[in-house]
Amino acid sequence: MKILNLPKNLLTVIFAIILPVAAWAQIIEVDAEKVSSDSIRNAFDNGNYFGLYKDNYFIFGTAIGKRPTVQNSNVKFQISISQRLTRSTLPWNTYLYLFYSQKCFWNVLENSMPMTDLNFNPGIGLTKPFFVRNRYIGKLSLIVEHESNGRAGLESRSWNRISLAGNIMIDPNVIVHGKVWIPIIDGQNNKDILDYCGLFEVGTSLTSRDKRFGLTINMTKRRGWNFNYNTVVELNYRLLKRDNQYLFLQYYNGYGEGLLAYKEHHSQLRVGIVIKPRLFSDY
User: Fold this and answer.
1) Which residues contact residue 220 at a Cβ distance below 8 angstroms, ignoring those fewer than 6 apart?
2) Which residues, in sequence order, are CB contacts of 279 under 8 Å at separation 6+?
3) What is the C-alpha to C-alpha distance for residues 190 and 226, in angstroms, rounded to an integer?
4) Which residues pair with 76 in a beta bridge?
5) Exposed, middle or buried by CB within 10 Å (0-12, 13-18, 19+), for 236?
6) How does pLDDT run across 213-271, given as a tens digit for each residue?
7) Residue 12 is inside which H or E element, if any?
8) What is the pTM of this model?
9) Which helix (H) or strand (E) holds 22?
10) Nearest CA among 217, 126, 134 for reference residue 166
């Protein structure tokens, strides 16, 4: 099997430099614990163009229910950013965004520490924030996105999606999120990807009143009428009250964790550090 070596992945080095800057910009932009509709509107209209999109994390762990080995113990990290392309709102009070996420599986215990799977996920879409009685309650996004692993030949994996994603704040400590997509599968080696990576996902995020502790559960429904879900459970604890860095634990159970081995079932527990977007994360 071909492997990706660290020196070739310049994007990883570049994003490792710019991510702390993006995280700091989001902290000073608006205090997420004291948000109002006016502050959110100003953040959309006049805030930084560049910011975080999904969770950005660096975690290490091993398989659950199996003997740990150098093959099933690895680092998983994700880099995810967004760029607002419009300052004023478009029709229906929407904003145009460019999104990019990159997920990597890094076998640091093996010789030469190979990066065995890199998943690239660019997209472009419209986002509409919602306000009810002068209170920001969430947003809805329509996104055209592509995901592939950059491989050639039999190891090539790719597909496209037209996705509708939403986040609703039930109250400041409870958020419900969901995403459904129309797939356009162009990869010749992953025609059955919906059987493993699914058709839609739902989840919820809970945060303690002091904003220090959080719990997220996300479930992706695989194709079929059975109760077959890929499940992710995440715990995070903020290290310092005003910092946007958290201790992070992630449990993944199901298929499709990475594109290269999307048909393989994984039950993985990993711990590390996460940097979270302001207000709430996208999935």
Assistant:
1) 197, 198, 200, 201, 229, 230, 231, 254, 256
2) 32, 35
3) 21
4) 59, 105
5) buried
6) 999 999 999 998 888 999 999 999 998 888 889 999 999 999 999 999 999 999 999 99
7) helix 10-29
8) 0.84
9) helix 10-29
10) 126
7/4 Cα distance (integer angstroms): 9
Alpha carbon 179 to chain centroid, angstroms? 12
pLDDT at 14 over 50: no
- The H or E element containing residue 194 is helix 194-197
Check residue 47 and give its pLDDT.
65
Q: For residue 105, what are the CA distances in angstroms to 42, 250, 282?
A: 38, 14, 20
Phi, psi of 21 (to 5 degrees): -65, -45
Q: Number of C-alpha atoms within 13 angstroms, CB side, residue 77?
A: 17
pLDDT at 62: 96
**Size of the chain in residues:** 283
CB 149 within 8 A of CB 158: yes
